[in-house]
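Researcher: Sequence recovery benchmark, item below. Answer with residues only.
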């Protein structure tokens, strides 16, 4: 009998001990147990975004901060405009005369990898070398003017690409072979980065306003801008919904050959200057010292002064009294026409203004 009572008592003690373990846990033990059942999500690494010195936009990834700009020569003859690609990804596009009164473009990229395909690529000309030097850019072209431009290339880090170059390829587009060369950002950039040193300072190209600020200019309306270069008129039309200018050639909207997207910019600069012939009577000498001009943004325009000076200097924009002006954050198109033959026209909804730099 005694053995049976002892066994019952031992069983009751064991049950009470187990109940105590489950009902009277230490608070720390309970918290630790709860946490253990929750799976922690891995923390995502925050990428640092910096200000692009060529646009003033806060869209530059940290791994591109020290990348030097790349300036690429792009064909702009009448038939080649339909096969242009990559211009919408450029931070700045320069346009001025070459031989025969046609213009050529130079597209400048802070992040070359942003543009999948760029072109068609054409040869180097003297004034574009100086424009590229003003950005400490690596200059990409296909060949060069042998008399006036070739000697000047010793002053810049440049790469002349062709069919067999890394990051370059000829693609059939319905035009003759000289108009079919394109470069590819992701392939070309590693070749440039390995060949040339990066000495980028990231100095802002202009005095950019904060990204969300709307800059309104006091010189009148500029909903349509016409720059009548000798062969083709370059036209920009303002879209109030987007706050951007769309590029046209005469009255034809130009779109990217690969993406089909319109070419849009925030700022349009018209830098009037003297353009004359070199002694060969063919190639054009563009004075980049400075002069008068106009700046348009957000459907408004104002007269400006501009100066560049030495080959490695960047273009400086001021008002007519020499004071700094605010420039809208965004992409820019810079037209450099002949002040003696080109009269830019700025049109608003109710006004048309014909202006000269003389």
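Model:
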């Amino acid at each position: 009998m005694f053995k049976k009572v002892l066994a019952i008592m031992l069983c009751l003690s064991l049950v009470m001990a187990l109940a105590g373990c489950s009902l009277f846990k230490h608070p720390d033990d309970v918290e630790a147990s709860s946490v253990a059942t929750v799976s922690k999500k891995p923390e995502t690494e925050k990428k640092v975004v910096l200000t692009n010195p060529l646009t003033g936009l806060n869209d530059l990834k940290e791994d591109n901060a020290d990348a030097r700009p790349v300036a690429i020569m792009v064909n702009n003859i009448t038939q080649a405009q339909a096969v242009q690609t990559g211009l919408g990804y450029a931070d700045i596009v320069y346009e001025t005369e070459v031989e025969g009164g046609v213009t050529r473009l130079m597209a400048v990229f802070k992040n070359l990898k942003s543009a999948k395909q760029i072109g068609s690529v054409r040869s180097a000309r003297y004034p574009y070398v100086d424009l590229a030097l003003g950005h400490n850019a690596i200059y990409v072209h296909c060949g060069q003017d042998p008399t006036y431009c070739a000697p000047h290339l010793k002053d810049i880090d440049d790469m002349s690409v062709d069919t067999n170059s890394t990051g370059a390829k000829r693609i059939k587009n319905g035009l003759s072979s000289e108009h079919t060369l394109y470069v590819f950002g992701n392939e070309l950039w590693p070749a440039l980065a390995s060949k040339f040193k990066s000495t980028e300072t990231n100095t802002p190209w202009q005095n950019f306003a904060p990204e969300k600020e709307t800059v309104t200019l006091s010189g009148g309306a500029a909903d349509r801008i016409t720059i009548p270069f000798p062969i083709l008129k370059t036209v920009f039309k303002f879209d109030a919904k987007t706050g951007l200018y769309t590029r046209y050639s005469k009255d034809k909207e130009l779109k990217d050959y690969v993406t089909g997207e319109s070419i849009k910019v925030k700022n349009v600069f018209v830098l009037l200057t003297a353009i004359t012939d070199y002694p060969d009577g063919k190639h054009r000498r563009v004075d980049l010292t400075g002069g008068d001009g106009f700046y348009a943004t957000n459907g408004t325009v104002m007269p400006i002064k501009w100066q560049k000076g030495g080959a490695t200097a960047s273009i400086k924009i001021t008002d007519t009294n020499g004071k700094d002006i605010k420039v809208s954050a965004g992409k820019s198109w810079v037209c450099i026409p002949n002040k003696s033959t080109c009269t830019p026209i700025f049109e608003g909804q109710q006004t048309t203004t014909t202006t000269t730099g003389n």
